[in-house]
TrEMBL record:
Top enzyme class: lyase
Family: Belongs to the class-I pyridoxal-phosphate-dependent aminotransferase family.
Catalytic activity from the UniProt record: S-adenosyl-L-methionine = 1-aminocyclopropane-1-carboxylate + S-methyl-5'-thioadenosine + H(+)
Keywords carried by this UniProt record: Ethylene biosynthesis, Fruit ripening, Lyase, Pyridoxal phosphate, S-adenosyl-L-methionine
Gene3D superfamilies in the record: Aspartate Aminotransferase, domain 1 (3.90.1150.10), Type I PLP-dependent aspartate aminotransferase-like (Major domain) (3.40.640.10)
Biological process terms in GO annotation: ethylene biosynthetic process; fruit ripening
Pfam short name (any one): Aminotran_1_2
UniProt entry tagged with the keyword Lyase: yes
Taxon lineage: Eukaryota, Viridiplantae, Streptophyta, Embryophyta, Tracheophyta
Name the UniProt record assigns to this protein: 1-aminocyclopropane-1-carboxylate synthase
UniProt source species: Deinandra increscens subsp. villosa
PROSITE patterns reported in the protein's UniProt record: AA_TRANSFER_CLASS_1
Cofactor(s) this protein cannot do without: pyridoxal 5'-phosphate
Stretches assigned to the Aminotransferase class I/classII large domain: 39-423
Length: 472
């Protein structure tokens, strides 16, 4: 009596990415109430700069009281019916903020912006606009586990992986793109586009100009779309600097061309400002038909007028946004380095990254075998024995077992240090256990060899010892 959507299992909720969250919620760490609980390191949340936002709110109490700068109440106009297009003041402030993040090298037209209830809604809306059920999008691996839900569950679209390798730092190559396109054709899937996260979740690296050029050339030759999910654009904390796909179009004189109409950006304030609960997402497209259709669809997931009003006031304070972006990047870099050093003390390395709220951690040397089964065994030990919820690479569709995404910005320094102490104890215990196993195996092997030797070998050995004694 229920729909296929209800009874099917295509949401992706059974992924280890989500299962780790469930285990954390059963036994959450608390330094006082539950010090032996599971520490949440699977949540890409930015809690490092809340104090800056809270200080702004203290100094500017009018917006939270629904009053304008003249101290007049705006409660009634915010509470009544709102247009799907959103508040002009907020859209203008948001595009200015997006330009500021990109060093003002590019500008954005607020008329091309569609507001959505977070990046999840933005990505799904673009799938509805660009693909029919059964059409495919190519995604470079590893990719955010939630895309299996966001892009596929309700839209019926398919994902074909672009297999990237650790040999070149998981960079996108032309050959990998071509191979993914061929695989889609073999599956009789019509490829409608490519979706990339820039900076990457889970790698924590921003795309190079070379990679972006490859992508633009490929969508041009194949006449397909490109979605650039840039929700981590404001988290780039070290070189190389962030390059938006819009900057590539501008540099190559492709603005206002047919190619530019097939390039779309997803953005959100969930990561850069650390406001996932506010559900502020956006689609930016140069295609009027996409903007029009997405605006209509946005009626199913609007951002409240009150939220838009408050954020328009914050983002319009350009002195504040400049200070915030700079300080937030500094704190992210400091926290990233703290995690890397902590892991290094345990003999664990990370992919060198320059952005994001996480590290792509290499634990291949801790696997019992080079298999995904061994990766899951290690992951379960880390969750249940070590008490850390991290995301295994297989949940991110990584083609190589032994990689894990570890988040560092959703906790205090003290909690991070405790997590690193747990990792060190775990790795040390593994080393001790392996040494004991190795010694036991060596002893067993020596014992078996000794028992298998014939009697004359012992007699010869005894005779040689007697001769040696006589010679002495």
């Amino acid at each position: 009596m229920l729909s296929e959507k209800v009874t099917c299992n295509s949401h992706g909720q059974d992924s280890s990415y989500f299962l780790g969250w469930e285990e954390y919620e059963k036994n959450p760490y608390d330094e006082v109430k539950n010090p032996k609980g599971i520490i949440q390191m699977g949540l890409a949340e930015n809690q490092l700069s809340f104090d800056l936002l809270e200080l702004w709110l203290e100094n500017n109490p009018q917006p939270t009281a629904f009053r304008n700068r003249s101290n007049q109440s705006v409660f009634k106009e915010l509470a009544l019916f709102q247009d799907y297009h959103g508040l002009p003041a907020f859209k203008n402030a948001l595009v200015r903020f997006m330009s500021e993040i990109r060093g003002n090298k590019v500008s954005f037209d607020p008329n091309n912006l569609v507001l959505t209830a977070g990046a999840t809604s933005a990505n799904e809306t673009l799938m509805f606009c660009l693909a029919n059920p059964g059409d495919a999008f190519l995604l470079p691996t590893p990719y955010y586990p939630g895309f299996d839900r966001d892009l596929k569950w309700r839209t019926g679209a398919e994902i074909v992986p672009i297999h990237c390798s650790s040999l070149n730092g998981f960079r996108i190559t032309k050959s990998a793109l071509e191979e993914a396109y061929k695989q889609a054709e073999k599956q009789n899937l019509k490829v409608k586009g490519i979706l990339v996260t820039n900076p990457s979740n889970p790698l924590g690296t921003s795309l190079t100009m070379h990679e972006l050029d490859i992508l633009v050339n490929f969508i041009s030759s194949q006449n397909i779309h490109l979605i650039s999910d840039e929700i981590y654009s404001g988290t780039v904390f070290s070189s190389p600097s962030f390059i938006s796909i819009m900057e590539v179009l501008k540099t190559r004189n492709l603005m206002n061309t047919e190619i530019s109409k097939r390039v779309h950006i997803v953005y959100s304030l969930s990561k850069d400002l650390g406001l996932p609960g506010f559900r502020i997402g956006a689609i930016y497209s140069n295609d009027e038909r996409v903007v029009c259709a997405a605006t209509k669809m946005s009626s199913f997931g609007l951002v409240s007028s009150q939220t838009q009003y408050l954020l328009s006031e914050i983002l319009s304070d350009q002195k504040f946004t400049k200070i915030y972006l700079s300080e937030n990047r500094r704190r992210l870099k400091q926290r990233y380095e703290r995690l890397v050093k902590g892991l290094k003390r345990s003999g664990i390395s990370c992919l060198k990254s320059n952005s994001g709220l996480f590290c792509w951690v290499d634990m291949r040397h801790l696997l019992n075998s080079n298999t995904f089964e061994s990766e899951m065994e290690l992951w379960k030990k880390i969750v249940y024995e070590v008490g850390l919820n991290i995301s295994p690479g297989s949940s991110c569709h990584c083609g190589e077992p032994g990689w894990f995404r570890v988040c560092f910005a959703n906790m205090s320094e003290e909690t991070l240090d405790i997590a690193m102490q747990r990792v060190k104890s775990f790795v040390d215990s593994m080393a001790t256990e392996n040494n004991q196993i190795f010694r036991q195996k060596s002893m067993n092997l020596h014992s078996r060899r000794t028992k298998s030797l014939p009697k004359w070998v012992f007699e010869l050995s005894f005779h040689q010892r007697e001769v040696s004694a006589d010679e002495r």
